[in-house]
Structures are given as structure tokens and as C-alpha cells.
Specification:
The protein is mostly beta strands and 187 residues long. It has 1 helix and 9 strands; from the N terminus they run αβββββββββ.
Length: 187
């Protein structure tokens, strides 16, 4: 299964770049950008049994950068810190932290010169770490899974934009969400 994910992680960006290269040559909307967002996260964790409770609400942030190939298509990479989920149960408590690197294909639908709808689908390479008295011996875990997001951006001028996004990060048994407000600077 990991071989399939690794192949997907290599082939998808390469295919995306190959298909988008002709569009890049024809569009004036192309270029590099960077940004950052801060917001509310929810880490939805499957607990180990009765008597356990999880408070998965926290704050999180992301920093990102990317390349807009045309006014509709781009690619984005980033770092995401989802904060921590607090777990309590028989024998004590623990904090579960989640961080990730992300890579996504992005879509933009301009509604006007100032407003655009946003969408993205990609991979997140996540790491978890557990601290506390009820952590199992393997307190760290990592994997690569899919994520997606939607949002809206308001362009303040040709370089600066403000955006609101909702992103859903999936694993085989758990999920993380980020609802954020951010800024984006296009070079």
C-alpha cells in the first residue's frame, strides 16, 4: 500500500506539471506565491475503549507556498501544525500532537476581479507524537494520506489576498480539520 502511495505522490505532481506547462506559457496570471493561515482545528481520534474521552479542539496554523500555472490551476506545498488533542482515561491523560507536510493540486474559480472560489486535493505526510501517562509504548506514528479543501479569497490588490479555508485531512481511522483565515502574497 505504501508503494502505491509513494508512486502516486511522484506521478501525480509530474503529470500535473506536464499537463499545465502549455497553459503556463499562455497565461499572465502565473507566478509564485507564499502565505500563512491560523485557525481552529479539530483532531477526531478513535479512543481505546470505555472510560476514555477526547477534546480534539485546538488552534493550528499552516505556512504554504506554490506556483499558479494559470488563473485556474496551480500546485501548493506547505507545513501544517494541527495543535493537540487532549485524551483522558483510566490511569491518566495524554496530549496527541499532529504535524504534516502537504502537497496539493489547486483550482481557482474567479467570480470577479476581487473574489475567487478555491479548491485543492493532495497528500499530507503526517506525524503524531503522544506525551503523557496513558501513551502506548509506540508514542509516535506517521503515514501519507489524502486531504482536500475549499475556500474563498478576496484580492486586496494584484499581490495581496485574504482567504478563508476549510480543509479535511483523512487517515485510515481518524481525521483532522482546519478552518482558517490567512493571507497570501503573489510575486
Amino acid at each position: 500500500m505504501n508503494i502505491m502511495r509513494t508512486a502516486f505522490a511522484i506521478v501525480l505532481p509530474a503529470a500535473f506539471l506536464a499537463v499545465s506547462a502549455p497553459a503556463h506559457a499562455q497565461q499572465s496570471d502565473s507566478g509564485w506565491y507564499i502565505g500563512g493561515s491560523y485557525g481552529m482545528t479539530n483532531i477526531d481520534v478513535t479512543t481505546a475503549g470505555p472510560g476514555f474521552s477526547v477534546d480534539g479542539d485546538d488552534s493550528g496554523y499552516k505556512i504554504f507556498g506554490g506556483y499558479q500555472f494559470s488563473k485556474h490551476w496551480g500546485a501548493e506545498f506547505g507545513y501544517f501544525d494541527a495543535g493537540k488533542a487532549s485524551i483522558t482515561g483510566p490511569g491518566g491523560s495524554a496530549d496527541l500532537g499532529v504535524t504534516a507536510l502537504t502537497f496539493a493540486g489547486t483550482g481557482t474559480l474567479p467570480l470577479s476581479e476581487k473574489f475567487s472560489l478555491l479548491g485543492k486535493v493532495g497528500l499530507w505526510m503526517w506525524d503524531t507524537g503522544c506525551t503523557g501517562s496513558i501513551c502506548v509504548s509506540n508514542a509516535k506514528d506517521s503515514d501519507t494520506d489524502l486531504f482536500y479543501g475549499v475556500g474563498v479569497r478576496y484580492n486586496l490588490n494584484k499581490n495581496w489576498g485574504v482567504q478563508v479555508e476549510y480543509e479535511q485531512f483523512e487517515t485510515s481511522s481518524d481525521s483532522v480539520t482546519l478552518t482558517s483565515l490567512g493571507v497570501r502574497f503573489k510575486f
